[in-house]
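Re: that backbone. Tokens:
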């Protein structure tokens, strides 16, 4: 029960409407007799009750009753139909579920592992647009024996949803194997799927594996001469070939660039290789330019070829020199005979001229392997003989030969 100092303002209406318990009603009546504030609240509550009771009751029209009953009946019919359709849908889903599960159970209960097995032997990476091969073996696991005469198809997929392309078809030999050769597509570098399908009795045996296609290019860079003067033009040419068949790489971007001795790039020009795999560029040199070695680069994709030329001022000689060798090519260690003729441009021979022949070869970088000197006679003629070193380092640009 509340404290006697606590007002019962919120209980006075409940007291008059007889919704309080006997003990609570007695407390409210006693408290209002002692508390002026609650007594006033009780009088106001009696006024509200008298006002409420003075309002005459009104009857609802028959039309409103009829419409209300009709809506109730319509709602009950709609709810009933919905419940029936919902129940039927649940039954249909449950029946379908039972049928599917039962069918799958019956299907998998009748399955048995295939007695055949398929094995693939071959590289994980091959070059695009070249010939490749895999060794395929078909055998029975239960008999541990090879199976001959099984048709096998090999196909390759891009992985973008496009149809597979056919690579090869064959039948296994007496050892249950086959090693067909096929031409790989000229696709971009990347990972692709190769699918092997063996037409074994009962059902096909299918095995897939990932194959990486890569491109390998050979790039050769050349310039029209090794030394240039300021103000001249450097003529560049690049030749791009595909390994291993050395077919020209057509329609690929070829980028030439030149860097001065201080590392500043003074020239960069992109181009596209011709149907012969050739690209070219011309770089005019300024008349006022840093002298020294200039690094030239030619790039196709990730393949790059480099060389160095010299830029410096020089004075052309007033005579010309011709050199004749006794053979067009030599083997390491062979004897070389060279004849030199020097003559002025107006025809007079250079008599008593000092001749120096340097033998330059390249391993890691160009180097002088030997030097030989001679003096021209009165006819401007000199002869030099020397032996080549016993070994050289071959160059890929010369198919393994050395210069």
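Recovered sequence:
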């Amino acid at each position: 029960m509340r404290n006697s100092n606590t007002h019962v303002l919120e209980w006075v209406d409940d007291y008059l409407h007889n919704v309080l318990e006997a003990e609570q009603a007695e407390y409210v009546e006693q408290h209002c007799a002692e508390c002026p504030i609650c007594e006033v609240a009780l009088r106001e509550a009696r006024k509200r009750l008298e006002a409420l009771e003075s309002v005459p009751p009104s009857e609802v029209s028959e039309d409103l009753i009829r419409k209300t009953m009709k809506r109730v009946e319509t709602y009950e019919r709609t709810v009933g139909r919905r419940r029936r359709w919902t129940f039927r849908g649940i039954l249909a889903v449950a029946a379908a579920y039972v049928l599917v599960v039962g069918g799958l159970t019956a299907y998998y209960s009748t399955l048995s592992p295939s007695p055949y097995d398929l094995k693939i032997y071959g590289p994980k990476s091959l070059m695009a647009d070249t010939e490749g091969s895999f060794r395929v073996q078909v055998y029975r696991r239960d008999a541990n024996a090879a199976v001959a005469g099984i048709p096998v198809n090999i196909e390759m997929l891009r992985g973008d949803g496009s149809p597979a392309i056919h690579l090869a078809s064959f039948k296994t030999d007496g050892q249950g194997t086959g090693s067909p050769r096929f031409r790989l597509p000229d696709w971009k570098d990347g990972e692709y799927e190769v699918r092997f399908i063996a037409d074994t009795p009962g059902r096909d045996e299918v095995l897939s594996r990932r194959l990486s296609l890569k491109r390998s290019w050979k790039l050769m860079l050349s310039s029209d001469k090794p030394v240039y003067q300021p103000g001249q033009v450097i003529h560049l040419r690049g030749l791009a070939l595909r390994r291993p068949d050395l077919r020209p790489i057509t329609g690929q971007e070829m980028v030439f660039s030149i860097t001065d001795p201080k590392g500043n790039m003074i020239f960069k020009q992109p181009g596209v290789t011709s149907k012969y795999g050739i690209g070219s560029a011309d770089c005019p040199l300024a008349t006022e330019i840093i002298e020294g070695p200039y690094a030239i680069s030619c790039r196709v994709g990730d393949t790059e070829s480099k060389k160095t030329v010299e830029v410096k001022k020089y004075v052309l000689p007033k005579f010309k020199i011709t050199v004749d060798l006794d053979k067009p090519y030599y083997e390491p260690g062979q004897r070389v005979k060279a004849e030199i003729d020097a003559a002025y441009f107006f025809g007079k021979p250079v008599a008593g001229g000092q001749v120096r022949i340097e033998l330059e070869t390249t391993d890691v970088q160009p180097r002088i392997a030997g030097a030989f000197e001679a003096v021209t006679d009165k006819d401007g003629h000199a002869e030099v003989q020397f032996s080549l070193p016993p070994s050289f380092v071959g160059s890929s640009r010369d198919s393994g030969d050395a210069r």
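The mean pLDDT is 85. The first helix runs from residue 12 to 16.
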